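Moderator note: this is an archived Q&A kept for reference. The question asked for a predicted structure of one protein chain; the sequence and the answer are reproduced below.
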Amino acid sequence: MSLSEGRVSVRFRNCSIALFALAFFLMILAMLGVFYNIIRQVSADHAERYAASSADAFSAHVAKEIALMSKAARSAAVIDWFTDESDDEKKGLAYDELSGIVGELYSNNLYVGIETSRHEYRVSKNYETDDIRPFSTLSENKPDDAWYFNCIASDKDYVLNIGIDHVLQRKRLWLDYKVVRDGVALGVLCTGLEFSHVAEELFSSYNNVARGLIIDAKGSVNMDSALLGNEDFMHYDFEAKIEDVFTNPVLVEAVKSRLADTGDYFEGKNEATIIYLSPGPYRYATIAPIRLTNWWAVILYDSSSSFNMFVFLPAFIVTLILLIAFALATNSMTYRLIFTPFEQLTNSLARLEGNDMDGIYGLERKDEFGILSSTIHDLFTKANHDALTGLYNRRFMETNLQSVMEFLSRSYDLLSVLMLDVDFFKNYNDTYGHEEGDVCLKKVAQALAGTVTRAGDFVARYGGEEFVAVLPNTDEAGARKVAQELLENVRKLDIPHASSAAAQYVTVSIGVTTGRVAYRQSWENYVKRADEALYASKQNGRNQYTYSAFASM
């Protein structure tokens, strides 16, 4: 292949020079428009970042509390106490567990309600044995006890609500977490986030360039950076609606439309939505959902703070715009000529399945990418594939199985491994000859590859007449199904095998294992367990599969 036919580096250099000259002459005409767009984009980006960071910070507070409450609710000691409240020993163990968790909670205190007795307890960081006794009895007729009964009746693990801290006479965000055993609610754990402290952490860095608010699904403004330090706002009986706070009708309607879409607690990222407002104190507003809640963060941003960064020195602005224009144009050309082909090549390699080496991007090109693609094609084939069967080889299997396990171990996901052996293959070679034996292995390999086709799964020749199938994110039922299909598809080949004691045609024996991948497990453990199961299949007469669950080591 000749490099003279379309060298990428030459084309890139010539295009860069031409684009630079064009950008230089057009720079003066485009300066005002670019300047306006920069101001607009920077302001929008700042507003979005403020909203996303506020939502992230708030959800981080909630997530920490939820994690601690989940730990407490799932504690064996706590569940035992809730099941047998009168047992003093269980009560003491539960309090020991809860007092340790309370020390990590934001408010350093915890309320406990038990369903069987409706007794309410309080747990603080430091307690005495005599303090382990109920201080109240929960009643459906008492409004202050609604937190408990609402949580018991909910189909969620936890419930967030605004309530009163009667000790401080201030509003709090209460987190009520249900304690459950075998689907039966045993009681509720409750803790709170104090608004003034959280609001101070969320909004103290705004430096008057933005105003931040936290709004719940009912349209109540629960936090407002403009009212930091205002005791009336933090008082339990103070309530403000979005109509009371916002005067811009566009913003009010935009916020209400988001609230109308509010359903369950948000999951996923806190992605902000930008709203462009008419001229006024704030030109931009962003709304971002707060993960793990049904609340929203609303940020009003003053664009003049961004404008001040760009009003100095016209010559600096001209130079900056020139550099930006050149960088953008160069980046675009670089992406089109270099990065796009590289991305396509990378994507084609990631999508490779089985022996489909022709799927590599760029094999038909006449430039450096064509040479690179052809080289990768040859190296990939030789390094990772078995020369006889075309399947992946043992080297590929070992490297990729370990990589798959490292990925799965992050979330303790399932992995199934199958070890296959052609029954009485030595007898087959002795009877029909080694050339026919090679043909037999090729046909068996094709049947295996045609069965294991799911993205992420692969089959490799382990050695001789042995093969390994790797099935990430596959449970026992799925692994058994694949094993049965492998047995049937090899049988359908109907390859005569007169010297087999298992059948009159070529068959395979299979060992199957499935386990949850834990940190520092090795691929050898799974292959060894699958091999043990394979040995059992052989001992039991072959032409079958045996399942053996993987036990963590």
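Archived answer notes: The first strand starts at residue 109 and ends at 114.
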